[in-house]
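Renewal narrative, Specific Aim 1. Our central claim is that a sequence can be written position by position from structural information alone. The example that follows is taken directly from our test logs and has not been curated for this report. It begins with the structure tokens describing the chain, in the order in which they were read.
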């Protein structure tokens, strides 16, 4: 037995001892780009899983082959029923970079899944462009809304975009031009890492290439034109950033509200009586891991919330069309934070909102009437917390001769953190 054979056999034994499923990243160069130990795992597999493109790169063998045509859940059920077999799953490049690796780990547990990554589209694109990987932002529009790009359109940003299909480059160029980033240079790398790799270059506003290969990655250097309106990720976007009918938490109050809600990565907010959705949207814009549910009973306003979310790059916002009371009863889970911006006149609404906050989470509620403020004071008496009043005055632009200020409605704001253990 040669040293090479020994190392391969040892790798298989070590992996088999700690894992049931081996997830192997494979590039456009197929088996030629893989470590010998990874090739040995594929050759020894009893069940081989992958997309049609991946499986086509593997010569015929004794393994039972499964693609994902039956759906992820159905295929994972088959794997679940055969965990005593040698299972290998093929994935593109790095299986944990928008790949199937995370799905398998969630299903079977990290201790039962061994991931063997290969250079993926992101690292290969950066290598071709001469970009530092930590200095770029990765956005996938493969199976996700292209409007998610809106969140990342700021001057000098470098974006690596994982394409959906051959029309993606044209659609992205059109989006950039429409958002005022038409001068942005674009590079399309087709079939990156394989023998058929091709590069197409141009500028978004004059992009003239036809349909590209379906397997493509876009590299974009964001350059703002004179009409670009990039939005900050900090709370308190201009009111003009939103389509609304007057039901909007005003900019200054919104900034204070988000500061008090204090979103952390991975947390979930319920925005009750969302109006234009501004609080939920700015919550999600703080971090890609933040999630939010916007509850709005008026269907027209709910549709407006969805448009605002897409326009500001957080199209994953969950918009629920329901009245606040019913939604608080029927929605599942326990959010990290609840914001009540409307509906305080509904009896018992604040208590129901408080009941849904997870232990250690927080509730923020705003009121503009004396009656609403009284309810917040009563809630403070029962659960603690603190109250503040926010008084804002804006310059009255109707006055030409002198500078005068027009006060906005004073807002009473309540904040309370729910104890990890409630008092009996």
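The sequence written for that structure reads:
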């Amino acid at each position: 037995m040669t040293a090479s054979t020994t190392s391969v056999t040892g790798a298989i034994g070590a992996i088999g001892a700690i894992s049931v499923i081996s997830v192997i990243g494979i590039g456009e160069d197929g088996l030629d780009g893989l470590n010998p130990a990874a090739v040995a795992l594929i050759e020894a597999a009893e069940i081989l899983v992958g997309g049609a493109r991946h499986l086509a790169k593997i010569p015929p063998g004794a393994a039972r082959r499964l693609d994902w045509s039956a759906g992820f859940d159905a295929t994972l059920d088959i794997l679940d029923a055969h965990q005593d077999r040698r299972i290998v799953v093929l994935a593109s490049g790095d299986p944990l970079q928008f790949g199937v690796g995370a799905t398998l780990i969630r299903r079977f547990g990290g201790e039962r899944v061994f991931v063997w990554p290969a250079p993926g589209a992101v690292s290969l694109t950066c290598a071709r462009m001469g970009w530092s990987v930590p200095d770029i932002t990765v956005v996938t529009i493969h199976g996700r809304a292209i409007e998610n790009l809106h969140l990342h359109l700021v001057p000098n940003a470098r974006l690596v975009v994982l394409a959906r299909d051959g029309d993606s480059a044209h659609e992205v160029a059109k989006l950039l031009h429409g958002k005022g980033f038409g001068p942005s240079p674009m590079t399309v790398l087709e079939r990156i890492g394989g023998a058929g790799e091709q590069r197409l270059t141009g500028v978004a506003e004059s992009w003239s290439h036809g349909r590209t290969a379906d397997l493509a990655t876009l590299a974009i250097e964001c350059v703002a034109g004179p009409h670009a309106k990039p939005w900050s990720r900090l709370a308190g976007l201009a009111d003009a950033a939103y389509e609304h009918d007057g039901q909007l938490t005003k900019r200054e109050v919104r900034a204070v509200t988000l500061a008090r809600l204090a979103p952390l990565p991975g947390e979930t907010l319920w925005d009750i009586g969302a109006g234009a959705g501004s609080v939920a949207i700015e919550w999600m814009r703080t971090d890609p891991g933040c999630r939010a549910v916007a509850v709005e009973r008026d269907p027209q306003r709910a549709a407006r919330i969805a448009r605002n979310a897409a326009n500001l790059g957080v199209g994953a916002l969950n918009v629920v069309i329901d009245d606040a009371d019913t939604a608080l009863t029927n929605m599942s889970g326990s959010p990290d934070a609840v914001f009540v911006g409307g509906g305080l006149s509904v009896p018992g609404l604040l208590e129901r909102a408080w009941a849904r906050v997870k232990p250690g989470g927080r509730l923020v509620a705003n009121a503009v009437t004396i009656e609403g403020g009284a309810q917040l004071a009563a809630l403070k008496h029962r659960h603690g917390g603190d109250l503040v009043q926010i008084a804002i005055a804006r310059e009255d632009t109707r006055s030409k001769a002198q500078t005068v200020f027009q006060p906005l409605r004073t807002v009473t704001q309540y904040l309370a953190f729910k104890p990890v253990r409630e008092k009996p």
